[in-house]
Amino acid sequence: MIDQVELVRALGQREVADWVIIERAQQLASVDGRLHRAEHRKRWLLTVHLDLYNGRGSAHLAIDAVDGTADAIVDQAIALARAAVGPAWTSVPPTAPAKVALLDPSLAAIDPFEAAEGMLRGFKRPAGVTVDARARVLREQVTAIAKTGFRTQWNASIVRIDALVTARERSLEISREARQVADLETERAIAGAAADLELLAAAGAPAAGPCSLVFATDAMLHGGLGVWAAFANQGDAIVERQGLTRYREHAAIVAGADQLDEPLTVTSDGALDFGLLSAPIGDEGDAVRRFLLVERGIAVGLGLSPREAAFRSRDPNGGVRNLVIETGTWSGAPDEAAGPQKRRVVELRRLRSLAIDPYTGDASLEIALGVDRATGKTFSGGTVRLDLIAALARARRTATRISRGSYQGPSAVRVDRAELIV
C-alpha cells in the first residue's frame, strides 16, 4: 500500500522540474436486482515533468493503492518522462481553482449503498413495461498537491442509472449519468423509452430521399454530447497546432456562419455547478476556466493544457469540458419545421450509432427510430451522412433549454438539408 506522504517524499528526493498529485478517496456502490456491491478505494493520478538538456519530458501515471512502492512508481514516471522528451516549456504558477459545486447535497450524509437502493425504488414503472435497472453511486474526496506547495481539496459525486426497458418483445437501453440524483430524471427517461417502444411496434421501413431533420433530445445527445461532440473535437489545441482541424481560430467555422440570423455560440464551461465534466482544477493542476469555443459563428478559443498554453504564451484553461450551446428562437412546431421549401420533415427520436470524424466533422448516423412528421408514420433503419459543423452552424435551435450530463443548451435542433439513405 502507498499513500500521499510516501509519494511526496519520493518525489522530493528526485530532481524533478515539476509534479502534481491528484488523490481520490472514493466510496462506490452498485445495486441491481441480483448484485449488491460496495467498495472503498483510493486512486492517484501522478504527473511528472522532467527538464533535460534537449527539452522537457512528461509522464502521467494512474495509480491504485496496491500498485507497488512509492519509490518504484516515481522511478517509473521519471523513466517514462525521459523517453518522451519534446520541446522545452515552463510551467506557469498555479492560479485560483474554479469555485464549483460538485457534491449532491442529498448524498452528503447518506451511505452510497443506501442512496443506490433508493434510486431504484424512487421511480414508477409504466404499465405493461418491464424495467431491469442498475444504479451506481460514487462519492469522492479529491485532494490536489503540487511541487510549488499548492494544495486544494473538494468533494464530488457521480450517479448513474442503466436500464433495459422492454415491451412487446422489443427493448431500449437507457444510460444516464449526472452529479445529482434529481438530474438523472429516471422516471421521465423510462416513460420516454416506453412511449418510443410503442412507436417501434408500428415502425416500418424508411423511405429514402431529401428531407429536413429534427433531432429530438435523445438522438441529439446520443452517447453523451452527441452531435455537439464535433465542436469538442475541433477545440483540441494539439490537433489545431498540427493544422488538422476543420477551421482555425478567428475564422468562420463555415462560410457565412457569422452572417446568419441566429449565429452559433458554443462555450466550454468546466466551472458549471454540477456539470458532469466540471472540476476546480484539471489533472495537471491547471485551474479550470469558462471560455468560448465559437462566438457568433467565429472560432475564438481552444482547450489549453499547461503545455499547449506555454507554447502559445497563454494561460491554461483546463481543456474542453461541459458544452453550453446558445439557444435559438425556433418553437419546434411541425409547420415551422417544414421550412420555405416544404421538404419532407423527419424527426430522429433515437439513434443506433453516431460516428464523427474528429478532424473534418463528417458524421454517419444510424437511425433506431424516426417519425415522418407529414404522415405520422414511424420507421426504423436508414442512414444519414452529415457535415455536422456546417449543419449545426446553420441549424435552427429551440428556445427551450435543457441540462443533461455535460451538455446545456437547446432541447432540439432542425437541419434543413439532409439526405436519408436506405
Summed up:
The chain has 422 residues and is of the alpha+beta class.
List the helices and strands and how they pair.
Layout (H helix, E strand, L loop, with lengths): L3 H9 L5 E14 L4 E17 L2 E10 L5 H13 L2 E2 L25 H10 L8 E17 L4 E17 L2 E9 L7 H16 L7 E7 L1 H4 L8 H6 L2 H5 L24 E4 L20 E6 L2 E2 L6 H7 L10 E3 L8 H4 L7 E12 L5 E11 L5 E2 L3 E5 H7 L1 E2 L3 E4 L2 E4 L2 E9 L1
Parallel strand pairs: 8-13, 12-19
Antiparallel strand pairs: 1-2, 1-5, 2-3, 3-4, 5-6, 6-7, 8-20, 9-10, 9-12, 10-11, 13-14, 14-15, 14-16, 16-20, 17-20, 18-19
Helix pairs in contact: 1-2
Describe the protein in words.
This protein is an alpha+beta fold and 422 residues long. It folds into 2 domains: 4-184, PmbA/TldD superfamily (PmbA/TldD fold, 2-Layer Sandwich); 202-422, no CATH class. Helix content is 19%, strand content 37%. It contains 10 helices and 20 strands. The chain has helices spanning 4-12, 70-82, 112-121, 186-201, 217-220, 229-234, 237-241, 306-312, 334-337, 388-394, and strands at 18-31, 36-52, 55-64, 85-86, 130-146, 151-167, 170-178, 209-215, 266-269, 290-295, 298-299, 323-325, 345-356, 362-372, 378-379, 383-387, 396-397, 401-404, 407-410, 413-421. The strands form 3 sheets. The chain has a 7-stranded antiparallel beta sheet with strand order 4-3-2-1-5-6-7. β13 (345-356) and β14 (362-372) form a beta hairpin.
Give the N-to-C terminal Cα separation. 57 Å
Portion in strands: 35-45%
Helix content estimate:
10-25%
Q: Count every beta strand, where a strand is a DSSP E run of 2 or more residues.
A: 20
Rg value: 24 Å
Q: So what's the overall shape?
A: globular
Low-pLDDT sequence parts? none
Structural class computed from helices and strand pairing: alpha+beta
Mean pLDDT: 92
Total discrete domains: 2
Biggest sheet, in brief?
A: 7 strands, antiparallel
The helix tally amounts to: 10
Q: Could you state the order of secondary-structure elements as H and E?
A: HEEEHEHEEEHEHHHEEEHEHEEEEHEEEE
Query: Multimeric state of these chains?
Result: single chain
